[in-house]
Amino acid sequence: MLVVRAAGWPLVEQAAEVLRAAEESVLRVRLPVHWPETPDDLFAGLPLRHSVWLAGAHVDGASGTVGLVRRMLFPAGSRPSDPTDSDAGPDVRVSVAAPPGGATVGQSVAAVVSAGPEDPPSHWKSLRADRLDLPPGARAVLRYRLTAPDRVELRYDGRHEPETSPWAALALHTPRRLSRPRPVDLVLAVEIAGPQADGGVAVEERLQEAAAVVAAVRDAVGDEDTLRIGLIGYRDHAPLDRPHHSDPLVHRVALSDPQAAEQALGGWHRSALRHDFATGLEHVPHELSYWRDAWRPDSHRVLLVVGSRPPHPRNRPPRVLRRGAAVRICPDRLEWEAALRSVRHYDGVACVAVVDEPTWMDRLAGEPHLAQWADRAWDLFGAEGRFAAGHDPRSIASAVAAPALGLPEDGTPIRLVVSDGAGGDWLPAAAG
Predict the structure, then answer these.
(1) Under a CB-based contact definition with an 8 Å cutoff, are residues 325 and 309 in contact?
(2) 3-state secondary structure of 362
(3) CA 122 to CA 125: how far, in whole Å?
(4) How confident is the model at residue 169 (pLDDT cuts 50, 70, 90)?
(5) Pick from 115, 121, 40: nearest CA to 75
(6) Is the peptide bond before 183 cis (omega within 30 degrees of 0)?
(7) What is the DSSP code string of 242-268?
(8) Domain 184-404 belongs to what topology?
(9) CB-CB contact of 163 with 129 (8 Å)
(10) pTM
Protein backbone atom coordinates (compact mmCIF):
# COMPACT_ATOMS: atom_id res chain seq x y z
CA MET A 1 0.00 0.00 0.00
CA LEU A 2 1.35 3.38 -1.03
CA VAL A 3 0.17 6.25 1.15
CA VAL A 4 0.72 9.79 -0.11
CA ARG A 5 -0.07 12.84 1.95
CA ALA A 6 -0.96 15.85 -0.22
CA ALA A 7 1.78 18.29 0.68
CA GLY A 8 1.85 20.33 -2.53
CA TRP A 9 5.46 19.32 -3.15
CA PRO A 10 6.07 18.02 -6.70
CA LEU A 11 9.01 15.84 -5.66
CA VAL A 12 6.75 13.81 -3.37
CA GLU A 13 4.20 13.32 -6.14
CA GLN A 14 6.92 12.32 -8.62
CA ALA A 15 8.41 9.81 -6.17
CA ALA A 16 4.98 8.28 -5.61
CA GLU A 17 4.47 7.91 -9.40
CA VAL A 18 7.81 6.14 -9.76
CA LEU A 19 6.94 3.70 -6.99
CA ARG A 20 3.47 3.03 -8.39
CA ALA A 21 4.86 2.40 -11.87
CA ALA A 22 7.38 -0.10 -10.51
CA GLU A 23 4.63 -2.21 -8.94
CA GLU A 24 1.21 -2.06 -10.58
CA SER A 25 -0.48 -4.00 -7.79
CA VAL A 26 0.29 -1.25 -5.25
CA LEU A 27 -2.81 0.29 -3.67
CA ARG A 28 -2.45 4.06 -3.64
CA VAL A 29 -4.14 6.08 -0.91
CA ARG A 30 -4.13 9.87 -0.87
CA LEU A 31 -4.48 11.61 2.50
CA PRO A 32 -5.19 15.22 3.43
CA VAL A 33 -2.25 17.55 3.98
CA HIS A 34 -2.49 17.76 7.78
CA TRP A 35 -3.21 14.10 8.56
CA PRO A 36 -1.68 11.91 9.79
CA GLU A 37 0.91 13.78 11.81
CA THR A 38 2.91 10.56 12.29
CA PRO A 39 2.67 7.15 10.63
CA ASP A 40 1.31 5.72 13.89
CA ASP A 41 -1.79 7.89 13.54
CA LEU A 42 -2.68 6.07 10.34
CA PHE A 43 -3.18 2.82 12.25
CA ALA A 44 -4.41 4.25 15.55
CA GLY A 45 -7.96 2.98 15.12
CA LEU A 46 -7.09 -0.57 14.09
CA PRO A 47 -8.06 -3.43 16.41
CA LEU A 48 -5.43 -5.23 18.46
CA ARG A 49 -3.81 -8.23 16.79
CA HIS A 50 -2.70 -9.65 20.15
CA SER A 51 -4.03 -9.24 23.65
CA VAL A 52 -2.40 -6.75 26.02
CA TRP A 53 -1.53 -7.96 29.52
CA LEU A 54 -0.10 -6.69 32.78
CA ALA A 55 2.77 -8.96 33.78
CA GLY A 56 3.52 -9.69 37.41
CA ALA A 57 4.78 -12.25 39.89
CA HIS A 58 2.79 -14.62 42.07
CA VAL A 59 4.13 -15.76 45.44
CA ASP A 60 2.69 -18.96 46.87
CA GLY A 61 2.58 -18.46 50.62
CA ALA A 62 2.61 -22.15 51.47
CA SER A 63 5.51 -23.32 49.32
CA GLY A 64 7.37 -20.06 48.75
CA THR A 65 7.48 -20.64 44.99
CA VAL A 66 7.47 -17.60 42.71
CA GLY A 67 6.09 -17.63 39.19
CA LEU A 68 5.32 -15.22 36.38
CA VAL A 69 1.66 -14.42 35.83
CA ARG A 70 -0.30 -12.05 33.61
CA ARG A 71 -3.61 -10.28 33.86
CA MET A 72 -5.67 -9.36 30.79
CA LEU A 73 -5.97 -5.65 30.14
CA PHE A 74 -7.30 -5.53 26.58
CA PRO A 75 -8.23 -8.67 24.59
CA ALA A 76 -7.31 -9.11 20.94
CA GLY A 77 -9.75 -7.21 18.73
CA SER A 78 -10.08 -4.26 21.14
CA ARG A 79 -9.98 -0.82 19.56
CA PRO A 80 -8.13 2.13 21.09
CA SER A 81 -9.87 4.99 22.86
CA ASP A 82 -9.49 8.61 21.84
CA PRO A 83 -6.97 9.94 24.41
CA THR A 84 -8.59 13.38 24.25
CA ASP A 85 -12.08 12.05 24.95
CA SER A 86 -12.81 11.78 28.67
CA ASP A 87 -15.96 9.76 27.89
CA ALA A 88 -14.20 7.28 25.62
CA GLY A 89 -14.90 4.44 28.01
CA PRO A 90 -13.85 3.23 31.45
CA ASP A 91 -10.21 2.59 32.23
CA VAL A 92 -9.16 -0.92 33.14
CA ARG A 93 -8.42 -1.03 36.87
CA VAL A 94 -5.95 -3.54 38.28
CA SER A 95 -5.10 -4.09 41.94
CA VAL A 96 -1.43 -4.95 42.53
CA ALA A 97 0.86 -5.27 45.53
CA ALA A 98 4.54 -4.88 46.27
CA PRO A 99 6.48 -8.05 47.10
CA PRO A 100 6.82 -8.93 50.80
CA GLY A 101 9.51 -7.39 52.95
CA GLY A 102 12.96 -8.80 52.30
CA ALA A 103 12.04 -9.74 48.73
CA THR A 104 11.87 -6.21 47.31
CA VAL A 105 14.04 -3.12 46.95
CA GLY A 106 11.12 -0.77 47.67
CA GLN A 107 10.28 -0.21 44.01
CA SER A 108 8.14 -2.52 41.89
CA VAL A 109 7.78 -2.65 38.13
CA ALA A 110 4.41 -2.76 36.39
CA ALA A 111 5.16 -4.19 32.94
CA VAL A 112 2.57 -4.12 30.13
CA VAL A 113 3.15 -6.67 27.40
CA SER A 114 1.55 -7.86 24.17
CA ALA A 115 1.28 -11.60 23.63
CA GLY A 116 -0.84 -14.42 22.33
CA PRO A 117 -2.58 -16.74 24.82
CA GLU A 118 0.00 -19.52 24.42
CA ASP A 119 3.13 -17.38 24.07
CA PRO A 120 5.81 -18.06 26.71
CA PRO A 121 7.28 -15.06 28.59
CA SER A 122 10.32 -15.05 26.32
CA HIS A 123 8.01 -14.09 23.42
CA TRP A 124 6.12 -11.35 25.24
CA LYS A 125 6.59 -7.91 23.67
CA SER A 126 7.00 -5.01 26.06
CA LEU A 127 4.69 -2.04 25.48
CA ARG A 128 5.54 -0.04 28.59
CA ALA A 129 7.12 -0.55 32.02
CA ASP A 130 6.77 1.75 35.03
CA ARG A 131 8.71 1.67 38.28
CA LEU A 132 6.41 2.37 41.26
CA ASP A 133 7.49 3.51 44.71
CA LEU A 134 5.77 0.92 46.90
CA PRO A 135 6.88 -0.15 50.39
CA PRO A 136 6.96 -3.92 50.97
CA GLY A 137 3.49 -5.44 50.93
CA ALA A 138 1.80 -2.14 50.00
CA ARG A 139 -1.14 -2.23 47.60
CA ALA A 140 -1.99 0.07 44.72
CA VAL A 141 -4.68 0.38 42.05
CA LEU A 142 -3.43 1.01 38.51
CA ARG A 143 -5.64 2.29 35.69
CA TYR A 144 -4.82 1.66 32.04
CA ARG A 145 -6.27 3.00 28.80
CA LEU A 146 -5.55 1.77 25.27
CA THR A 147 -4.74 4.79 23.08
CA ALA A 148 -3.22 3.01 20.05
CA PRO A 149 -2.67 -0.62 19.00
CA ASP A 150 0.73 -0.66 20.72
CA ARG A 151 0.30 2.23 23.10
CA VAL A 152 -1.13 2.02 26.63
CA GLU A 153 -1.52 4.96 28.99
CA LEU A 154 -1.03 4.52 32.76
CA ARG A 155 -3.15 6.61 35.09
CA TYR A 156 -1.74 6.38 38.58
CA ASP A 157 -1.48 9.14 41.17
CA GLY A 158 1.41 7.60 43.10
CA ARG A 159 5.04 8.29 42.37
CA HIS A 160 6.32 6.41 39.32
CA GLU A 161 8.85 6.70 36.52
CA PRO A 162 9.77 4.76 33.38
CA GLU A 163 11.62 1.49 33.91
CA THR A 164 14.57 1.08 31.54
CA SER A 165 15.25 -2.63 32.06
CA PRO A 166 14.13 -4.75 29.09
CA TRP A 167 11.34 -7.22 29.65
CA ALA A 168 13.68 -10.18 29.09
CA ALA A 169 15.83 -9.07 32.05
CA LEU A 170 12.83 -8.55 34.33
CA ALA A 171 11.53 -12.02 33.52
CA LEU A 172 14.89 -13.77 33.68
CA HIS A 173 15.87 -12.34 37.06
CA THR A 174 12.58 -13.07 38.85
CA PRO A 175 13.52 -15.53 41.62
CA ARG A 176 11.89 -18.94 41.58
CA ARG A 177 11.51 -19.51 45.32
CA LEU A 178 11.49 -17.67 48.64
CA SER A 179 12.99 -19.10 51.80
CA ARG A 180 10.67 -20.36 54.51
CA PRO A 181 9.38 -17.53 56.77
CA ARG A 182 10.24 -17.49 60.47
CA PRO A 183 7.92 -16.50 63.32
CA VAL A 184 8.38 -13.01 64.75
CA ASP A 185 8.66 -12.18 68.46
CA LEU A 186 8.46 -8.40 68.88
CA VAL A 187 8.92 -6.50 72.14
CA LEU A 188 7.62 -2.95 71.82
CA ALA A 189 8.91 -0.48 74.43
CA VAL A 190 7.16 2.90 74.58
CA GLU A 191 8.17 6.00 76.56
CA ILE A 192 5.02 7.21 78.31
CA ALA A 193 6.55 10.19 80.13
CA GLY A 194 5.79 13.56 78.61
CA PRO A 195 5.33 17.24 79.42
CA GLN A 196 2.15 18.36 81.10
CA ALA A 197 2.12 21.63 79.16
CA ASP A 198 0.85 20.00 75.96
CA GLY A 199 -1.95 18.15 77.73
CA GLY A 200 -0.40 14.77 77.03
CA VAL A 201 -0.44 15.21 73.25
CA ALA A 202 3.17 14.05 72.77
CA VAL A 203 2.57 10.80 74.65
CA GLU A 204 -0.75 10.21 72.92
CA GLU A 205 0.88 10.64 69.50
CA ARG A 206 3.65 8.25 70.56
CA LEU A 207 1.11 5.61 71.58
CA GLN A 208 -0.81 6.09 68.32
CA GLU A 209 2.39 5.66 66.35
CA ALA A 210 3.20 2.49 68.28
CA ALA A 211 -0.28 1.11 67.51
CA ALA A 212 0.11 2.00 63.83
CA VAL A 213 3.41 0.12 63.68
CA VAL A 214 1.84 -2.90 65.37
CA ALA A 215 -0.88 -2.92 62.70
CA ALA A 216 1.70 -2.53 59.91
CA VAL A 217 3.83 -5.38 61.29
CA ARG A 218 0.72 -7.56 61.47
CA ASP A 219 -0.03 -6.78 57.82
CA ALA A 220 3.57 -7.39 56.77
CA VAL A 221 3.78 -10.77 58.50
CA GLY A 222 0.37 -11.80 57.20
CA ASP A 223 -0.13 -14.97 59.24
CA GLU A 224 -1.02 -13.73 62.73
CA ASP A 225 -0.21 -17.12 64.25
CA THR A 226 3.47 -16.47 63.52
CA LEU A 227 3.52 -13.02 65.20
CA ARG A 228 3.67 -12.39 68.94
CA ILE A 229 4.03 -8.96 70.53
CA GLY A 230 5.07 -8.05 74.06
CA LEU A 231 4.93 -4.55 75.56
CA ILE A 232 7.01 -2.51 77.97
CA GLY A 233 5.92 0.95 79.06
CA TYR A 234 8.69 2.99 80.69
CA ARG A 235 8.75 6.38 82.42
CA ASP A 236 11.15 8.61 84.37
CA HIS A 237 12.89 7.66 87.60
CA ALA A 238 11.13 9.14 90.62
CA PRO A 239 13.12 10.14 92.57
CA LEU A 240 16.53 10.17 90.90
CA ASP A 241 18.68 9.98 94.05
CA ARG A 242 17.46 6.73 95.62
CA PRO A 243 18.62 3.45 94.09
CA HIS A 244 15.96 0.73 93.71
CA HIS A 245 13.35 3.12 95.07
CA SER A 246 11.09 3.04 92.02
CA ASP A 247 10.85 0.95 88.89
CA PRO A 248 10.56 3.04 85.71
CA LEU A 249 9.04 0.06 83.91
CA VAL A 250 5.37 0.57 84.75
CA HIS A 251 3.77 -1.67 82.11
CA ARG A 252 4.71 -5.23 81.16
CA VAL A 253 2.63 -7.29 78.75
CA ALA A 254 3.90 -10.77 77.93
CA LEU A 255 4.33 -11.94 74.35
CA SER A 256 0.88 -12.68 72.95
CA ASP A 257 -1.29 -12.03 69.89
CA PRO A 258 -1.24 -8.58 68.19
CA GLN A 259 -4.83 -7.78 69.16
CA ALA A 260 -3.96 -8.04 72.85
CA ALA A 261 -1.05 -5.65 72.35
CA GLU A 262 -3.19 -3.10 70.52
CA GLN A 263 -5.85 -3.30 73.22
CA ALA A 264 -3.29 -2.84 76.00
CA LEU A 265 -1.72 0.21 74.31
CA GLY A 266 -5.13 1.85 74.20
CA GLY A 267 -5.28 1.83 78.00
CA TRP A 268 -1.94 3.53 78.68
CA HIS A 269 -1.74 7.17 79.80
CA ARG A 270 0.85 9.89 80.26
CA SER A 271 3.27 9.84 83.15
CA ALA A 272 4.95 12.97 84.51
CA LEU A 273 8.15 14.20 82.87
CA ARG A 274 10.69 14.69 85.68
CA HIS A 275 13.95 15.12 83.78
CA ASP A 276 14.70 16.98 80.56
CA PHE A 277 17.62 15.00 79.26
CA ALA A 278 17.05 11.30 80.00
CA THR A 279 14.48 8.74 81.06
CA GLY A 280 14.37 5.18 82.41
CA LEU A 281 15.09 3.51 79.06
CA GLU A 282 18.28 1.93 80.48
CA HIS A 283 16.08 -0.58 82.36
CA VAL A 284 14.64 -2.04 79.13
CA PRO A 285 17.71 -4.07 78.03
CA HIS A 286 18.01 -5.51 81.54
CA GLU A 287 14.31 -6.41 81.48
CA LEU A 288 14.80 -8.31 78.21
CA SER A 289 17.29 -10.63 79.88
CA TYR A 290 14.37 -11.97 81.94
CA TRP A 291 12.37 -12.67 78.78
CA ARG A 292 14.91 -15.22 77.56
CA ASP A 293 12.67 -18.21 78.20
CA ALA A 294 9.76 -16.55 76.39
CA TRP A 295 11.41 -16.47 72.96
CA ARG A 296 10.36 -19.17 70.56
CA PRO A 297 13.33 -21.33 69.49
CA ASP A 298 13.36 -20.36 65.81
CA SER A 299 11.87 -16.86 66.04
CA HIS A 300 13.15 -13.57 64.68
CA ARG A 301 13.42 -11.38 67.80
CA VAL A 302 13.11 -7.62 67.75
CA LEU A 303 13.19 -4.82 70.30
CA LEU A 304 11.34 -1.78 68.95
CA VAL A 305 11.65 1.38 71.05
CA VAL A 306 9.29 4.31 70.47
CA GLY A 307 10.54 7.22 72.54
CA SER A 308 12.13 10.64 72.77
CA ARG A 309 14.87 10.92 75.40
CA PRO A 310 17.86 8.60 75.71
CA PRO A 311 18.65 6.46 78.77
CA HIS A 312 20.48 7.81 81.80
CA PRO A 313 24.25 7.31 81.70
CA ARG A 314 25.83 4.99 84.28
CA ASN A 315 28.56 7.57 84.93
CA ARG A 316 30.28 10.55 83.30
CA PRO A 317 27.23 12.53 82.18
CA PRO A 318 27.79 14.87 79.21
CA ARG A 319 28.22 18.59 79.76
CA VAL A 320 25.28 20.97 79.48
CA LEU A 321 26.22 24.34 77.96
CA ARG A 322 23.06 26.40 77.49
CA ARG A 323 20.75 25.00 80.17
CA GLY A 324 21.04 25.11 83.91
CA ALA A 325 20.01 21.56 84.85
CA ALA A 326 22.61 18.82 84.71
CA VAL A 327 22.31 15.34 83.24
CA ARG A 328 21.78 12.84 86.05
CA ILE A 329 23.21 9.35 86.10
CA CYS A 330 21.00 6.29 86.62
CA PRO A 331 20.32 5.87 90.38
CA ASP A 332 20.54 2.08 89.93
CA ARG A 333 23.90 2.38 88.11
CA LEU A 334 22.70 0.11 85.30
CA GLU A 335 25.15 -0.58 82.49
CA TRP A 336 22.61 -0.58 79.67
CA GLU A 337 25.12 -0.85 76.82
CA ALA A 338 26.51 -4.13 78.15
CA ALA A 339 22.98 -5.44 78.72
CA LEU A 340 21.97 -4.48 75.17
CA ARG A 341 25.06 -6.15 73.71
CA SER A 342 24.24 -9.27 75.69
CA VAL A 343 20.66 -9.70 74.44
CA ARG A 344 21.80 -8.97 70.89
CA HIS A 345 24.62 -11.49 71.05
CA TYR A 346 23.08 -14.33 73.08
CA ASP A 347 19.41 -13.96 72.13
CA GLY A 348 19.84 -12.58 68.62
CA VAL A 349 17.66 -9.54 69.31
CA ALA A 350 17.50 -6.94 66.52
CA CYS A 351 17.03 -3.29 67.51
CA VAL A 352 14.77 -0.74 65.81
CA ALA A 353 13.92 2.73 67.15
CA VAL A 354 11.37 5.44 66.36
CA VAL A 355 12.48 8.75 67.89
CA ASP A 356 10.73 12.09 68.34
CA GLU A 357 13.85 14.09 69.18
CA PRO A 358 13.64 16.72 71.92
CA THR A 359 14.58 20.28 70.98
CA TRP A 360 17.95 20.11 72.72
CA MET A 361 19.06 17.56 70.11
CA ASP A 362 18.92 20.28 67.45
CA ARG A 363 22.37 20.63 65.91
CA LEU A 364 22.39 24.43 65.79
CA ALA A 365 20.25 25.73 68.66
CA GLY A 366 20.55 22.70 70.93
CA GLU A 367 23.12 21.17 73.25
CA PRO A 368 26.02 19.74 71.17
CA HIS A 369 27.41 17.39 73.84
CA LEU A 370 23.97 16.15 74.78
CA ALA A 371 23.00 15.68 71.15
CA GLN A 372 26.12 13.63 70.42
CA TRP A 373 25.53 11.46 73.47
CA ALA A 374 21.84 10.97 72.66
CA ASP A 375 22.62 10.24 69.01
CA ARG A 376 24.99 7.48 69.99
CA ALA A 377 22.42 5.96 72.34
CA TRP A 378 19.67 6.00 69.73
CA ASP A 379 22.02 4.56 67.12
CA LEU A 380 22.54 1.57 69.40
CA PHE A 381 18.84 1.14 70.09
CA GLY A 382 18.20 1.59 66.37
CA ALA A 383 21.04 -0.57 65.05
CA GLU A 384 18.80 -2.26 62.47
CA GLY A 385 16.72 0.84 61.74
CA ARG A 386 16.34 4.29 63.29
CA PHE A 387 13.34 6.33 62.16
CA ALA A 388 12.05 9.80 62.94
CA ALA A 389 8.60 10.06 64.48
CA GLY A 390 5.87 10.27 61.84
CA HIS A 391 7.66 7.95 59.42
CA ASP A 392 5.61 5.60 57.25
CA PRO A 393 4.64 2.68 59.55
CA ARG A 394 5.03 0.27 56.64
CA SER A 395 8.73 1.11 56.30
CA ILE A 396 9.21 0.64 60.04
CA ALA A 397 7.34 -2.66 59.83
CA SER A 398 9.64 -3.75 57.03
CA ALA A 399 12.70 -3.09 59.21
CA VAL A 400 11.07 -5.15 61.96
CA ALA A 401 9.77 -8.08 59.97
CA ALA A 402 11.70 -8.28 56.69
CA PRO A 403 14.54 -10.54 57.95
CA ALA A 404 11.93 -13.09 59.06
CA LEU A 405 9.96 -13.11 55.85
CA GLY A 406 10.64 -15.17 52.76
CA LEU A 407 13.91 -13.91 51.28
CA PRO A 408 14.72 -15.04 47.74
CA GLU A 409 16.95 -18.09 47.97
CA ASP A 410 19.39 -16.70 45.40
CA GLY A 411 19.37 -13.21 46.94
CA THR A 412 17.72 -11.62 43.87
CA PRO A 413 14.77 -9.36 44.75
CA ILE A 414 11.41 -9.60 43.03
CA ARG A 415 11.28 -6.61 40.66
CA LEU A 416 7.74 -7.08 39.34
CA VAL A 417 4.51 -6.16 41.07
CA VAL A 418 2.78 -9.05 42.79
CA SER A 419 -0.68 -10.25 41.82
CA ASP A 420 -3.38 -9.04 44.17
CA GLY A 421 -7.12 -9.65 44.29
CA ALA A 422 -9.12 -12.46 42.75
CA GLY A 423 -6.84 -15.29 41.71
CA GLY A 424 -8.90 -16.03 38.60
CA ASP A 425 -7.97 -12.66 37.07
CA TRP A 426 -4.29 -13.63 36.92
CA LEU A 427 -3.19 -16.46 34.66
CA PRO A 428 0.06 -18.40 34.94
CA ALA A 429 2.61 -17.82 32.21
CA ALA A 430 2.74 -20.43 29.49
CA ALA A 431 5.72 -22.77 29.66
CA GLY A 432 8.63 -22.25 27.33
Answers:
(1) no
(2) coil
(3) 8
(4) very high
(5) 115
(6) no
(7) STTS--SEEEEEEEE-HHHHHHHHTT-
(8) Rossmann fold (3.40.50)
(9) yes
(10) 0.63
